[in-house]
Amino acid sequence: MITESLEKEHFNYLNTAVIVIDDNLKVACMNNAAEFLIGLSEKQLCGIPLSTIIKNGQEMITAIESAATDKSSFTARSKELEFVTGRNVTSDYTVGFLPGEGILLELNQVDHHLRITRDEINHAQSSAMHKMVKNLAHEVRNPLGGLRGAAQLLEKELDDPDLREYTRIIISEADRLKELVSRILGDSKIAHEKIEINIHQLLERVRQLCIAEGLNGIEIKDDYDPSIPPVNAYADQLIQAILNIVRNALEALNSNGRIIFRTRVVRQVIIGNVKHKLAMKIDIQDNGPGIAEDIKENLFLPTITTKENGTGLGLSIAQSIIYQHKGIIECNEVDGETVFSIFLPLEDY
Fold first, then answer.
1. What is the extent of the structural domain holding 299?
2. How far is CA 54 from the centre of its chain?
3. Which residue(s) pair with 269 in the sheet?
4. Same domain, 190 and 330
5. Each residue of 188-199: pLDDT tens digit?
6. What is the phi/psi pair of residue 284, to 5°?
């Protein structure tokens, strides 16, 4: 419990994460910034050993024990910390002895500042890419008309309802892509308004499109959070963004592997430099070979690709679409698997 020497109200005014550790190396209390950093509340963590909360925190625990014994302080720079919530952050931390209270642990996340800079750069790159895509859109429009017409003629020749379902998918996708092209070129006749969508229905639509294109033995699993509310979005564009990511995963797996669609509601998320109370997180996770180290930093740039005949526009377009929804895409490696995470702020919808 915090005494008069460290009033809780003042404690919460700090922007850096602060945790008070008792003599048994358990959490005595923490401020709001620490709750946000870890992803759990003080009520959930109070009385829990620090070694349980920070999975790779042995070095920190040794420093805390030394500070308690010597009544001294210790500072470490740019340490990778893995929290029990699954969050991984790079943080400076300071351990200090607090008379009558225990040990004061101050965490200052540094990778967040690096990410903000990276996001700003990506946003500028995305704007440049959007101009380039406008030029390409002109070349895409005409073949779409021919594709749709051919599908309509084929549908008339088919007696099997199951086969006609595939032609209807072709026609539907041609119409969707034509509308996307029109929006890119700024001459869409349909009002640029968001519609209410169920994100899981949208993901199932993406799964259906992938099945139609051929999974070749690749399994697509789902792990949905049914509590996610409907959101307002540009449905066709969101489908395209997710589809671009999934297609990359399918090509990386090369007919052998598994993809997981996962949805969650996450709290206290920073997107760009804006803090949001609630956000939707959509993960596309695959157990493929991963992403080459030499392209990780430039993954969302136009023309960045490892495919022999690839354009490198898929992820760049996906990123541009998610930016239009005030969201962001991140790519991480979790337990040896590649995870693309889309964050969309819920309170903005």
1. 113-345
2. 22
3. 276
4. yes
5. 444 457 889 999
6. -115, 105
Q: Is 71 helix (H, G, I), strand (E, B) or coil?
A: coil
Tally the domains of the chain: 2
Whether residue 177 sits in one domain with residue 271: yes
The reply to whether 288 and 172 lie within a common domain is yes
Instruction: Tell me, yes or no, whether 228 and 148 share the same domain.
Output: yes
Same domain, 137 and 45: no
Residues 187 and 324 occupy one common structural domain: yes
What six digits make up the tokens of 121? 């750069």
Is residue 286 classed exposed, middle or buried when 0-12, 13-18 and 19+ CB atoms within 10 A define those classes?
buried
**Domain of 81: which CATH number?**
3.30.450.20
Domain boundary among 54, 79, 109: 109
pLDDT < 70: residue spans in the chain: 1-11, 13, 111-138, 182-192, 272-273, 294-298, 300-313, 348-349
Q: How far apart are CA 316 and CA 329, in angstroms?
A: 10
Task: Please give the full DSSP string across 148-203, using - where no structure is assigned.
Answer: HHHHHHHHHH---HHHHHHHHHHHHHHHHHHHHHHHHHT--SS----EEE-HHHHH
The pair of structure tokens assigned to 183 is 């929006």
**Domain-ending residue, one of 94, 109, 124:** 109
Q: Are 242 and 202 in contact (CB under 8 A)?
A: yes
Please indicate, yes or no, whether residues 97 and 158 belong to a single structural domain of this protein: no
Q: How far apart are CA 98 and CA 104, in angstroms?
A: 6
- CB count in 10 Å sphere of residue 273: 12
CA–CA dist 246, 278 (Å, integer) = 25
- Complete DSSP assignment for 227-294: TPPPEEE-HHHHHHHHHHHHHHHHHHHTSS-EEEEEEEEEEEEEETTEEEEEEEEEEEEE-SS---GG
pLDDT in tens, 261-294: 999 998 877 776 677 888 999 999 999 888 877 6
